[in-house]
Design a protein that fits this description.
This protein is 27% helix and 24% strand. By secondary structure, the chain is of the alpha/beta class. It has two domains: 12-40 and 292-407, Lyase, Ornithine Decarboxylase, Chain A, domain 1; 70-285, TIM Barrel (Alpha-Beta Barrel), CATH 3.20.20. The strands form three sheets. Strands 4, 14, 15, 16, 17, 18, 19 and 20 form an eight-stranded mixed beta sheet that branches. An eight-stranded parallel barrel has the order 5-6-7-8-9-11-12-13, surrounded by five helices. Strands 1-2-3 form a three-stranded antiparallel beta sheet. α7 (183-192) packs across α8. It is elongated and about 70 Å long. Pyridoxal-5'-phosphate binds at residues 65, 67-68, 86, 109, 203, 206-207, 242-243, 284-288, 387.
Length: 408
């Protein structure tokens, strides 16, 4: 037997069946037109944002990192909940603008921005988080040609990284941002060129469940930003402090205590250097805001036995749930939280593996898990499916195509 990850708070049974946003899984699948299906819960997202605002200092803006989940109805929902959006491509820019999201709260990071994307962003009034000197020069030239004043910030590659972070994106040689010793000359160049200086973006890691590490990293980010602002000789208008707040996926993972992180940040905000007294601060979060609000529903097509092991074969798989299958940035495969949705109130009765319909041994949603006895027609729920699911999985693999998605 291999343990399953912890089912997030806020999910319960109605008449024995998993309910999402107060509706039974089978009714949701029927309404959406079948399975595989991603269901995202408004209620869950709202509660998450509210709790975060309560814990964090009031002056800290909360931004949503669109790459976690770009589903249009979810973006519209987020529009009313968060203070800004972080995007990483021209495609994401089109998505946010199409939802009526105010461009002045949008920032665009990511290496390898094309000229067309820079132009689109500058014309819309989006802030560019510049990843290199060459990108800065291209942006300035494009703005000149357009007769526009670009809003420019610099992404910094910090010398530290978020300890215990799932995906390391700072520290050492990186394709992201400018090394710290190159930031001040470029900031001065941007300001001298007449651009609107929008300050710094410092992202040091992702998926951390270590509150002490997050507090330490936020302290390092504030120290670094203060030093760079002082050396630039201009008050820092804006600081995007990154995010990196993780969610529990695996057995033994503990949820973050937002209270202690918020208190530490409040204390830091009370002793800011002169260069940052008026700075606007933001954090950018994807997974933490929407990850636990999503459930992936897939139907059991076959139940079979091989060498004494039971396999539940579903109509979904890694083509929608690459991360849950263990093939998206993990070294050792461990089980995500998963349940038989149509027998949610039943106790475990057997050991079974849940696999997808792809003809590859990689396609496994749960390995030797303890589950209620399930049969053909039952629905399987994979939790923590709200972030890096639908849009971060190879849905064209084996000609399967995308899953359905609904926001309830
Ligand atoms: C991916 C990414 C995020 C979001 O990370 P989460 O782990 O989903 O919160 C935020 N900022 C940047 C720069 C990113 O690349």
């Amino acid at each position: 037997m291999k343990p399953l990850g912890p089912i997030p708070a806020g999910y319960s049974a109605i008449e024995g069946e998993l309910a999402i946003g107060g509706r039974q899984a089978s009714a949701l699948a029927e309404e959406a037109g079948g399975t595989p299906l991603f269901v995202y819960s408004r209620q869950h997202i709202r509660r998450r944002v509210e709790e975060l605002r309560t814990a964090m200092p009031e002056r800290l803006a909360i931004h949503y990192a669109v790459k976690a989940n770009p589903f249009a109805p979810l973006l519209r929902e987020m529009r009313g909940l968060v203070d800004g959006f972080d995007i990483a491509s021209g495609g994401e820019l089109e998505l946010v603008l199409a939802q009526g999201i105010d461009a002045s709260g949008v920032s665009f990071a990511g290496p390898g921005k094309r000229d067309g994307e820079l132009e689109q962003a500058i014309a819309a009034g989006v802030t560019l988080n510049l990843e290199s000197e060459a990108e800065a020069e291209r942006a300035l030239a494009i703005a000149d040609r357009l007769g526009a004043t670009p809003r420019l910030a610099i992404r910094v590659n910090p010398d530290f990284e978020l300890r215990g972070s799932g995906m390391k994106m700072g520290g050492g040689a990186k394709p992201f941002g400018l090394d710290t010793d190159r930031v001040v000359p470029l900031a001065q160049r941007i300001i001298a060129a007449g651009a609107q200086w929008r300050g710094l973006h410092i992202f040091a890691g992702s998926q951390s469940l270590d509150a002490d590490a997050i507090i330490e990293t936020q302290g390092n980010i504030l120290d670094l930003a203060g030093r760079l602002a002082e050396e630039t000789g201009v008050k820092l208008p804006h600081l995007n402090m990154g995010g990196g707040f993780g969610i529990p996926y695996f057995n033994g993972d503990q949820a973050l205590d937002m209270g202690v992180i918020g208190e530490a940040l409040k204390a830091r905000f009370e002793s800011l250097p002169a260069s940052m007294v008026q700075t606007e601060f933001a954090i950018e979060l994807g997974r933490y805001l929407v990850g636990e609000a999503g459930v992936y529903l897939t139907r059991i097509l076959d139940r079979k036995e091989s060498h004494g092991q039971i396999f539940l074969v579903t109509d979904g798989g890694l083509h929608h749930q690459l991360a849950a299958s263990g093939n998206f940035g993990t070294v050792v495969r461990r089980n995500y939280p998963l349940a038989i949705a149509t027998r949610f109130a039943d106790p475990p009765a057997e050991e079974a593996s849940v696999v997808g319909c792809l003809c590859t041994p990689l396609d496994r949603l749960a390995d030797q898990a303890e589950l209620p006895k399930a049969d053909i027609g039952d629905l399987v729920a994979v939790f923590c499916a709200g972030a890096y699911g639908a849009s971060a999985s190879p849905s064209a693999f084996l000609g399967q195509g995308p899953a359905l998605e609904i926001l309830v």
